[in-house]
Amino acid sequence: xxxxxxxxxxxxxxxxxxxxxxxxxxxxxxxxxxxxxxxxxxxxxxxxxxxxxxxxxxxxxxxxxxxxxxxxxxxxxxxxxxxxxxxxxxxxxxxxxxxxxxxxxxxxxxxxxxxxxxxxxxxxxxxxxxxxx
Amino acid sequence: xxxxxxxxxxxxxxxxxxxxxxxxxxxxxxxxxxxxxxxxxxxxxxxxxxxxxxxxxxxxxxxxxxxxxxxxxxxxxxxxxxxxxxxxxxxxxxxxxxxxxxxxxxxxxxxxxxxxxxxxxxxxxxxxxxxxxxxxxxxxxxxxxxxxxxxxxxxxxxxxxxxxxxxxxxxxxxxxxxxxxxxxxxxxxxxxxxxxxxxxxxxxxxxxxxxxxxxxxxxxxxxxxxxxxxxxxxxxxxxxxxxxxxxxxxxxxxxxxxxxxxxxxxxxxxxxxxxxxxxxxxxxxxxxxxxxxxxxxxxxxxxxxxxxxxxxxxxxxxxxxxxxxxxxxxxxxxxxxxxxxxxxxxxxxxxxxxxxxxxxxxxxxxxxxxxxxxxxxxxxxxxxxxxxxxxxxxxxxxxxxxxxxxxxx
Lengths: 133, 409
Ligand code: SF4
Ligand code: SF4
Known about the structure:
By secondary structure, chain A is α+β, with helices and mostly antiparallel strands. Chain A contains 4 helices and 5 strands; from the N terminus they run ααβαββαββ. Chain A folds into 2 domains: about 1-45, no CATH class; about 50-135, Alpha-Beta Plaits (2-Layer Sandwich), CATH 3.30.70.3270. In chain A, the strands form 2 sheets. In chain A, strands 2-3-5 form a 3-stranded antiparallel sheet, with no helix packed on it. In chain A, strands 1-4 form a two-stranded antiparallel sheet. Chain B has 18 helices and 11 strands.
């Protein structure tokens, strides 16, 4: 076969595209506006591809069980965790986090876990969505 | 374009940033008509001081720093560092972990080679194939995400083992994805090896003879495509590679001859994708039960690593060739010294004979055919008063001797 890609290209015209068109078929002019419309039920969002089990997403912190041992700070490769001496708890700046999950592994009290939330893009690195405490 | 060395030739600079190159490197071509008669390569555009940064972190933190040396080899760099560290600390790795390490390494090879195939297609202007390879790569990335939790920077390496196990309930999904990749491989093979467009652009283009490959110390698929049988997995088996019957992938397996051109490099990489899929399947079948890490308590491990002294090396066959890490510990929290030699470093010089005599339009595909990774390679950049300068080999030799003496103290 001289041009092996041609038949595949023609066949593709009648197939569903591989790409999942998240969040909408056509990129909305304003994402915030679009999300608002979704919230009001005026527009429909195409859901993202599902995350697999044990996905490393946004960190969840159980403040009650934390004993302030600072071990997570010791292993965090990016310096994303800050210690709050007043109440002996920690504060995680997700804008710095590289989602390696190393803090989860070392925590003796299992206070840290990872959720499957991954839509964390923000223009402000100190926004309250990006700080876990 | 500027005046050349002779009256009839002229110079074209390509890079440091150029749409034909995926990473910053600068070529100065001496052109006569359409023909390349000379080339000068300038590196040092993306130096990031990673080796220095490691001396300010503990070994567990360095793993994630090493992961960021290269986005595509995000497994073999931390792993080579781990091998070096394990050698210093005399840590025994459980057998199950050895097999898991193979699985992750071969998965990385699949991702990298398929990505390269797409880039190569793009460089010759065949973007339809680029999208096809991306579809296949997506399958491999899904599998990576399933096994590690991340798609690119795997975060799976741990000193003394790996961080995540593969349980029996994960096998159906893994097999499904592996079968998908196997099925797509056949399609890829047809397109890359039988399509007229590819043959026209890659056969006889960017030739690196076996002699040159040996003389200039080429590594990885580039060397194998020139007929040099060189593969760390076979030559100096690490992990459990000693238990496997692996073959050197050279182009003569398919065509019966070795030309050392871009076409041969495509063949080698395609063969290696198939080999990797088989290796993953075999590892899963042969993996014994047991622990996946020698010291599950991280605090204990860190304390142990604080007290080690000595130097170690880690060698691995990365997707682009041999990666080499040297590390020295001196009874401290952080490594005393760390040196990384990425495969592209060895594959820079072979570029020169490959470019000679080619046409300007072949520059992108010839440059891409070694699968260069500049960020891995750059170790030093000398900038003084805003101007970049280069060192002669005598100066470098002098500095190198000085550093060795310092390390030996
Ligand atoms: S996941 Fe990694 S980078 Fe993020 S806070 Fe935990 S240790 Fe730090
Ligand atoms: S390791 Fe766990 S218990 Fe210790 S400070 Fe961090 S979150 Fe708290």
